[in-house]
Amino acid sequence: MFDPPSLLSSLAALDFSLLQQPPMSTLFILGLSTVISLVTSVANRMVIDLDEYRRWMVESNRLRREMMEAMRSGNQRRIAKVQKRQQDLMQTQQKMTMDRMKIMVFFMIPFILIWQVLNKFLKDVSYIALMPFTAPLISPKGTLSVSTWYFISSIATNIIISRVLGLTFEIGPEEG
Fold first, then answer.
1. Which has the least CB within 10 A, 1, 54, 148, 174?
2. How many structural domains comprise the chain?
3. Does 4 map to a domain?
4. Predicted confidence pLDDT, tens digits, the chain (176 residues)
5. Selection from 135, 156, 171 nearest residue 60 by Cα
6. What's this model's pTM, rounded to 2 decimal places?
C-alpha cells in the first residue's frame, strides 16, 4: 500500500551528498533538465494542434516570399493583398502563441519551486561540471555553475525532445 509519509521519511533518510559532486551532479542536472523538457514538451504536444501549426508555418513562409516578390515588382495592389493576408495569419499566430504561453505560466511555479530546492541543495557547490575547453564568455576557468550547466542541458535536451515529439519540423522548398 502506498504510504506518502513513510515514502517522504525514507527519502529524507537517504544520503544525496553524492549528487553534490561532479560527475554525479553533472548527470543529475542533465537528468533534471531532460525530465522538465519532456514534461513541458508533452504538455505542448497535447495542447497545440500540430497540423494547424504546420499549415501556419508553411503559409507564413509562402506569404513572406510573396511579399518580397511584390515589393521587388513594386505592385502596390499585390503588396496590399499580401499585407491583408498577413494580418489574418497574425491572428492565428497570436492564438497559438497564447496557447503556448498558458503552458509556460502553468509550469513556471513548479519550476521556480524546483529551482529553489535545487539552489539550497547545491548552495556549497563551487562548480557542477567541467568543460573540456575554456570559453572566456561562458567560463574562463573551464568550470560551469549550476545555472549555466542547466541552461546548456535544457537547450540540448529540449531540441532533441521537441524533434522526437514532432514539435519542430523543416519547411521544404516545395511547401513554401
1. 1
2. 1
3. no
4. 667 777 767 766 677 888 888 889 999 999 999 999 999 999 988 888 888 888 888 888 898 899 899 889 988 998 889 888 888 888 888 888 888 888 888 889 989 999 999 888 888 888 888 888 888 888 878 889 899 999 999 999 999 999 998 887 666 665 65
5. 171
6. 0.74
